[in-house]
Amino acid sequence: MAIFSPFVRYSLVAPALAVATTVPAQAPSLAMLDRLEKGSWQLRERGKDAVLQTVCVGDARRMIQVYHPRATCSRYVIEDTPGSVTVHYTCPGAGHGRTSIRSETNRLVQIDTQGIADGKPFSQAIEARRTGGC
């Protein structure tokens, strides 16, 4: 069995570590949102009949920022699974939020969102259902 000095061991391991650390991390895909049908979606507070809003969804990522629909925000993906996503977002000058979206079907999702919008806290459980085309 060969015995290596500490310098030789380091010189054998260091290049392998350098190669391992230069591989870029893969960004979360949020693929669950891509599977949702495009079209008109009604958002209702869970357990209530009144429609909060109707949105034309071309990109379901729009449902992440229910309280900041037009704000330019940075996002940090907390969870990205085949059935759900959780995202924290920050909108400079407009507030921030954390949204979890759970897919029941590609036409029905449950949204839990909370944060600060216009200086006021919000927290809401929403059911979003596709109702037709836009």
Layout of strands and helices, then pairs:
Elements: H1 6-21, H2 31-34, E1 39-45, E2 51-57, E3 74-80, E4 84-91, E5 95-105, E6 108-117, E7 120-132
Antiparallel strand pairs: 1-2, 1-7, 3-4, 4-5, 5-6, 6-7
Provide a brief overview of the structure:
The chain is mostly beta strands. It is built from two helices and seven strands, in the order H-H-E-E-E-E-E-E-E.
How would you characterize this protein structure?
The chain is mainly beta and 134 residues long. The chain has one domain: Staphostatins. It has a seven-stranded antiparallel sheet. The chain is built from two helices and seven strands, in the order H-H-E-E-E-E-E-E-E. A hairpin with a 2-residue loop joins strand 5 (95-105) and strand 6 (108-117).
For the largest sheet, list the strands in their spatial order. Answer: 2-1-7-6-5-4-3
Structural class: mainly beta
Radius of gyration: 22 Å
Count of the domains: 1
Find the CATH topology.
Answer: Staphostatins
Share of residues in helices: 10-25%
| Order of helix and strand elements from N to C terminus | HHEEEEEEE
**Share of β-strand residues:** over 45%
What is the number of helices?
2
CATH class: Mainly Beta
- Biggest sheet layout: 7 strands, antiparallel
- Global shape: globular
Q: What is the number of strand segments?
A: 7
Name of the CATH architecture: Beta Barrel
- Which stretches of 5+ consecutive residues score pLDDT under 50? 6-25
Mean pLDDT, all residues:
83
Span between termini: 72 Å
